[in-house]
Amino acid sequence: MRRFSFVAAGARTDVLVGKGAYAGLDRRLRHIAPGRWFLISSKKVFLLHGGSLLAGGGDRLDPKPLFVPDGEAAKTWDVLGRLLEELVRRGLRRDGGVVALGGGTVGDVAGLAAALALRGVAVVQAPTTLLAASDSALGGKTAVDLPSGKNLAGAFHPARLVVVDTSALVTLPLRAYRSGLAEVVKTSMLDAGFHRAMARLEAPLSAREPAAVSEAVRRSLGVKARAVTLDPFERTGERAALNLGHTVGHALETASGHRLEHGEAVAWGLLAALHLSVKRAGLPRGTAEALAGRVVRLVKAPRPSAAAVFRVAALLRADKKADRVGLRAVLLARPGRAVLVRAEAAELLEAFEGVLARYNTVGWVLPGFRA
Ligand SMILES: NC(=O)c1ccc[n+]([C@@H]2O[C@H](COP(=O)([O-])OP(=O)(O)OC[C@H]3O[C@@H](n4cnc5c(N)ncnc54)[C@H](O)[C@@H]3O)[C@@H](O)[C@H]2O)c1
Ligand SMILES: [Zn+2]
Question: Which has the closest alpha carbon to 1: 165, 169, 209?
């Protein structure tokens, strides 16, 4: 079992990663808040892992979970409202809290419910997808979606405890696992030590070896915790580095009508960012190619349709975050050193189209191109 703690914006978060990490949860919950705790999950996740979480949570945790719909459908105003009403009806008090068991969707809506209920109660994040375990459960961002777009209503409400039982990740479908690896690889590029460790971790991660998955989760959370400590509200840039690959990635995710998983879209975004980094940030070409190869081998993202690629262009040009000088993009100067630049939509598109021309489907390099 590995543990560490960090303090960001005056709030302390404990992080616990390992097999069987839910054991002793009752003691930890009592230490955080002595009152009654409520579990929020989706039926699908609860059937798989609710038993072990409830066993760890003991009497402190209400045995009857509050269910949210599976996937992105959980992140609506309506679901949030029903959660708040139900928490209060069941007797949540200021000295109680909420445990979120599930992927990033459950974590986001449950975290926001905890931020709002009674003006804020403690939340514990128990992530069960690789994406949530290595990234979204830590850092305090919570949100629901609005008709105008994803994550447009939310709050910063950091978890008091992020508890990752790595045995819960074993039931994750392969595609979701690989999609989560996109965030892991992304984070590894932002830290020199993690980058070096990836040379050793890549093969066992590909084979889903539990010890490697555990180490990758722990290292990812460590790198994110450092960024969040320096820049809790994403104002000074340290935290923005975690958006590497996400400008093109988000546009592609939307453009594919969510047929590509988040991590798959981010994988394409990472390839584009690496490509542009050679030109704009001085990343040595050999390093860019080695990193791109790792993204390709670990994520195995499907190739987007021509229609989706066409829509990416429109979305990047219309990006609301763009200003006169262009879009904000994260590039890599070298492993462990990200830089924020302004890039024209056209530049990003050229980079994206460049990697599309080069990688037939991720996993296959077109003939005539060096691997
Ligand atoms: N708050 C943040 O900082 C942050 C960061 C990145 C992403 N996000 C959000 O995270 C969400 C995506 O999260 P996600 O990728 O975890 O998706 P998700 O929560 O929809 O989970 C994906 C699917 O996996 C299933 N699942 C979860 N755990 C499982 C397990 N152990 N075994 C088998 N199946 C399991 C779920 O039931 C679901 O069907 C998005 O809404 C995104 O906006 C938030
Ligand atoms: Zn992401």
Answer: 165
